[in-house]
Design a protein that fits this description.
The protein has 459 residues and is α/β, with parallel strands linked by helices. The protein contains 17 helices and 14 strands. α7 crosses α15 and α9 packs parallel to α10. It starts with a helix and ends in a 9-residue tail after the last helix.
């Protein structure tokens, strides 16, 4: 199995191959599968040779002093500091020093997170089921925030995708390695309100460029994240205009200039976004980009199952899911192991990442599942663990690693750091430490390759 998973994808420039025979797919899925575009196997081609220089050639040096901050960019007690939102130009949509190509472009919900610690009694009093995610309206949001009055909570530029992008940016701009920075952009919808300006400013400080223009008179979405002492998080999402996605000429231009496109699964919740997602994936595919899809939430998959499966099987090169989401894709029981789900999905998606909390994770490739043990930590807040894990997988791929086990172990360590803290963001110091350790791992692999041995030390 080592040969199946230890080779690097020949990224971004591989010629397309003929699609695999549909008979190799499970019968239950052949009925749902449409004809995949002609480049289906280009991700698999990229695993045929370990070409680190190819990956590095696509990474450029984009400098930003704001990303050097040493601590998280969250504000305590729910206060949005006015001087941080007043200076933002609401018409800004592309930085003046925009690169010719973006290494990563994310399409997702631009949500401001309000995160706080509560007890079980708080949830019971408001009739909120612990550990769930619920879409709420404006009145319900006000009710919960009023109930939190007097509690300590933080405001941050949140959303599942932005968590991953910020972590990836901090790993990718580490000064402890000799790698060039990873250039990251995000597109989505924010309103022309103070929260929209707050969101854009916070991402910019993390060296993630939010490139979409604000929606006039729109309301930026928010997520209230309630964490109980057992580290379980309950999320209440007010979508506002943040779930809107229009595929206009500006977004089409961004997609055509990106090497990796990541689509957040929460966007599937509104039917009018599906057409935009398909068009973005189609254009990304035509321009040779890798396409990653995040499952986001079990309820999203169940409500939007056909759309999810259509886009995942026809366009995705990478699928990120947790155990419950992977089982939902495969219509398996909640008691089934996620390992068969990872193997099952990898018949349709070249690389599948399935996380299973304290039990570890799996990377599925070509019908095989590589087990990744969990990294030890004392859990404080599980919110953002899967987002952090995804950033580790993407970072390993972008840095040219051919060692899937090593990439998985890096992702597990990134997730453990986030779980062991309050807040969803990987801080700069931890990112530096993890990036440096992974760079040493890659150097060791190269050394072992030069001396003709497969006995590289474990990462």
């Amino acid at each position: 199995m080592a040969l199946a998973y230890s080779r690097l994808l020949h990224r971004f420039s591989a010629p397309p191959l003929s699609p695999p025979s549909s008979s190799s797919l499970p019968l239950a899925r052949r009925r749902a599968r449409a004809a995949r575009p002609s480049g289906y196997n280009r991700f698999a081609v990229r695993w045929e040779g370990r070409v680190v220089e190819v990956a590095r050639a696509f990474l450029g040096g984009f400098q930003d002093a704001d990303a050097i901050e040493s601590d998280d960019e969250e504000d305590g007690n729910g206060a949005l500091r006015p001087h941080e939102v007043d200076y933002i130009n609401l018409e800004l949509h592309a930085p003046s020093s925009s690169p010719e190509r973006w290494d990563v472009l994310g399409l997702g919900q631009a949500m401001v997170d309000f995160s706080g610690m509560v007890d079980d009694e708080f949830l019971e009093r408001l009739g909120i089921e612990k550990g769930t995610r619920k879409v709420i309206n404006h009145e319900e949001r006000g009710q919960v925030l009023r109930a939190m009055d007097g509690c300590s909570y933080k405001a941050a530029a949140g959303g599942s995708l932005s968590n991953s992008l910020v972590a990836l940016s901090r790993l990718g701009s580490s000064r402890s390695t000799s790698y060039p920075e990873i250039r990251i952009a995000m597109a989505g919808s924010v309103g022309s309100d103070p929260l929209g300006s707050f969101y854009r400013a916070k991402l910019r400080r993390a060296n993630v460029h939010f490139l979409s223009k604000p929606i006039k008179d729109g309301t930026t979405g928010t997520v209230i994240v309630l964490t109980t002492p057992d580290a379980q998080r309950t999320m209440l999402a007010y979508q506002g205009t943040s779930s809107m996605l229009s595929y206009d000429s500006d977004l089409a231009s961004l997609v055509s200039k990106s090497n990796v496109l990541i689509v957040e699964g929460y966007l599937f919740e509104l039917p009018h976004t599906i057409k935009a997602i398909k068009q973005a994936c189609e254009d990304a595919h035509k321009n040779g980009a890798l396409i990653a899809i995040t499952a986001s939430d079990v309820s999203c998959i169940k409500r939007c199952y056909n759309d999810f499966w259509d886009i995942v099987t026809n366009y995705a090169d990478i699928l990120f899911a947790n155990a419950n989401e992977a089982r939902a894709f495969c219509e398996l029981s909640s008691t089934d192991s996620p390992m068969p789900a990872a193997r099952y999905l990898s018949h349709s998606v070249p690389l599948v990442s399935v996380t299973d909390g304290v039990h570890g994770s799996y990377i599925g490739v070509k019908g095989e599942a590589i087990y990744i043990p969990p990294s030890p930590c004392i859990p404080i807040d599980t919110c953002g663990a899967g987002d952090a894990y995804a950033s580790g997988i993407l970072y390993g791929i972008l840095r040219g690693s051919s060692d899937l086990k090593g990439i998985g172990l890096l992702a597990s360590r990134v997730a453990a750091v986030v779980v062991g803290q309050q807040g969803t963001r990987l801080c700069v110091q931890d990112a530096d430490r993890l990036a440096e350790s992974f760079a040493l791992h890659l150097d060791n692999l190269e050394f072992c390759s030069d001396v003709g041995t497969d006995h590289a030390s474990n990462f």
